[in-house]
């Protein structure tokens, strides 16, 4: 029982250090190109790439992913969000670039996540027949939990994106209504002043015309 617990802790530790990534939120100005980089230590590693435009314009952005040899692996134009997983066949630095070229004034706020993950490999138990019976079921349970956690994480990102986009739309609508109300008020005041001026001019000219 103790050996099984020790094996579980070691396996969880290996699983936790086999994946490393970065979750960031950045603002990209109009006509700006911004790139981020991730290092791959060995061929065959899995790279996860997620992004979503949180606010700005039509919530779209251009992006491209290149390997160390400048070969384009992924690209897209006017994409609102994306979630990709691919295998890194080349060791080196991978670039993840965003370009806000379609906007002339609008800044885009982007939430993105880059994760480099190595697939854990099963190793032979220290003593055959002692913990091998529990290894398979234990690993399957751990990977099942890991998959469930990843699904929860994706769902959280989805709702986070929807919340930010909804807030951005509400804020934009509120600003438009505010300036429309200001313009309408100024128009009413101007119209009232103009009517007073017209009436005053009319009666003044009429009085002078029939003055004895």
Task: Please give the structural blueprint.
Blueprint: H1 2-17, E1 19-28, E2 33-40, E3 45-55, E4 61-66, E5 72-79, E6 81-88, E7 92-99, E8 108-117, H2 132-209
Antiparallel strand pairs: 1-8, 2-7, 3-6, 3-8, 4-5, 4-7
Helix pairs in contact: 1-2
Features:
GOLD_dom_sf; single chain; four-stranded antiparallel β-sheet; receptor; 44% helix; alpha+beta; membrane; 212 residues; GOLD_dom; signal; Jelly Rolls
Walkthrough of the structure:
The chain has 212 residues and is α+β, with helices and mostly antiparallel strands. It has a domain at 23-118: Sandwich (Jelly Rolls). Helices cover 44% and strands 33% of the residues. The protein contains two helices and eight strands. The chain has helices at residues 2-17, 132-209, and strands at 19-28, 33-40, 45-55, 61-66, 72-79, 81-88, 92-99, 108-117. A four-stranded antiparallel sheet has the order 1-8-3-6. It has a four-stranded antiparallel sheet with strand order 2-7-4-5, with no helix packed on it. A hairpin with a 5-residue loop joins strand 4 and strand 5 (72-79).
**Portion of residues in helices?**
40-55%
Beta content comes to: 25-35%
Quantity of strands, as a count: 8
Q: What is the rounded distance between the termini? A: 121 Å
Assigned CATH superfamily of the domain at 23-118: GOLD domain
CATH class of the domain at 23-118: Mainly Beta
Structural class determined from secondary elements: alpha+beta
Tell me the series of helices and strands, N- to C-terminal.
HEEEEEEEEH
């Amino acid at each position: 029982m103790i050996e099984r617990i020790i094996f579980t802790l070691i396996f969880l530790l290996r699983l936790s250090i086999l994946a490393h990534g970065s979750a960031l939120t950045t603002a990209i100005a109009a006509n700006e190109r911004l790139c981020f980089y991730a290092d791959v230590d060995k061929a065959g590693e899995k790279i996860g790439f997620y992004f979503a435009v949180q606010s700005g314009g039509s919530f779209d952005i251009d992006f491209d992913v290149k390997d160390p040899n400048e070969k384009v692996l992924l690209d897209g134009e006017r994409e609102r969000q994306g979630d990709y997983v691919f295998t890194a066949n080349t060791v080196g630095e991978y670039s993840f670039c965003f370009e806000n070229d379609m906007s002339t004034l609008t800044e885009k706020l982007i939430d993105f996540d880059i994760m480099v993950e190595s697939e854990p490999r099963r190793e032979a138990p220290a003593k055959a027949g002692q913990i091998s019976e529990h290894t398979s079921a234990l690993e399957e349970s751990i990977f099942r939990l890991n998959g469930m956690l990843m699904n929860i994480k994706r769902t959280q990102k989805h709702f986070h994106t929807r919340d930010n986009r909804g807030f951005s739309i509400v804020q934009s609508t509120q600003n438009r209504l505010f300036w429309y109300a200001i313009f309408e008020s100024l128009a009413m005041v101007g119209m009232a002043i103009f009517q007073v001026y017209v009436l005053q001019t009319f009666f003044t000219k009429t009085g002078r015309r029939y003055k004895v």
